[in-house]
Amino acid sequence: MNHFELFNLPVALDIDLANLKTHFLNLQQQYHPDKAEDKDQALIKSSEINQAFKTLSNVDSRAAYLLALKKQDHHLDQSISDFEFLQSALEIREQLDEATDTEQLQSLKNEVNQWIEGLVREFKIDYVDEDWAEARDTVRKLRFFQKVMNDINKAEDHMLDDEDFDLDDDY
Q1: pLDDT tens digits for 20-77?
Q2: What does the alpha-carbon distance between residue 118 and residue 148 come to, in Å, rounded to a whole number?
Q3: Both 36 and 92 in a single domain?
Q4: pLDDT surpassing 70 at residue 166
Q5: Range(s) of the domain holding residue 19
């Protein structure tokens, strides 16, 4: 059973994330090791459910998984060779490193979301056209931007924690 079938979802890049989470929680309850007679088997199943949920939760890993289902996921760990993309990626990384407030991070987050949306559109076209080399390249780029988005969120959390911290606070 593939991950999409496990969660009763269509095999597609666009999925209902709320529906995914609902199915995930239901399956976790059903296969929870504390409730099972065969705890070892339930632990294995629970681990499979967690891995499937993690894979389908993010667009980059979901796209890579779609390629895997078509047996087209080889060489996804290769580096990106698109010079213009790499130049843009470097500029975004520099902006992140230089960001000093949450407004700058929000602006950067908006820019990264635009990149992701564009790459999602590209992947859908490549996938339908079975242009596997381009689809793999797009997944590499999606992975890059997903990492950037994670780093932006971490930086935002860090800034918000620092704003909330005050030496005069009573503990």
Answers
A1: 999 999 999 888 877 777 888 888 888 999 999 999 999 999 999 999 999 999 999 9
A2: 16
A3: no
A4: no
A5: 3-57
Alpha helices, H only, the chain:
3-6, 17-30, 39-57, 59-69, 83-98, 102-128, 132-164
Task: Tell me the two tokens of residue 31.
Answer: 């296969």
Report if residue 68 sits inside a domain.
Answer: no
CATH number of the domain enclosing 138: 1.20.1280.20
Distance (Å, rounded) from C-alpha 123 to C-alpha 116? 10
Looking at 34-162, which runs of residues are DSSP E strands? none
DSSP string across 93-122: HHHHHH--SHHHHHHHHHHHHHHHHHHHHH
Q: Is 31 helix (H, G, I), strand (E, B) or coil?
A: coil
The pair of three-digit structure tokens given for residue 155, joined into one six-digit string: 């930086």
Looking at the structure of the chain, the number of domains it has is: 2
